[in-house]
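REQUEST
  id: r-88c1
  op: predict_structure
  target: Aconitate hydratase, cytoplasmic
  payload:
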Amino acid sequence: MGIVPLCFKAGEDADSLGLTGHERFTIDLPDKISEIRPGQDVTVRTDTGKSFTCVVRFDTEVELAYFNHGGILPYVIRQLSQQ
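RESPONSE
  id: r-88c1
  status: 200
  body:
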């Protein structure tokens, strides 16, 4: 588990989507982390019933690997322990 960086689509922002900052969000990600791709579109739903599309801001496969390992430090430690 970690923080998934998201970016609004071009021309959208919190104001245009009517978001207040008090919502709870559900992000529809693939079941397997390995299925997430850099720049992939995902659907975001709020507890108030709003739905919109965002772009996953993992820009490289390396960033996805860091996320998959729980962060940069766990990734580096695993790499070092395999040597």
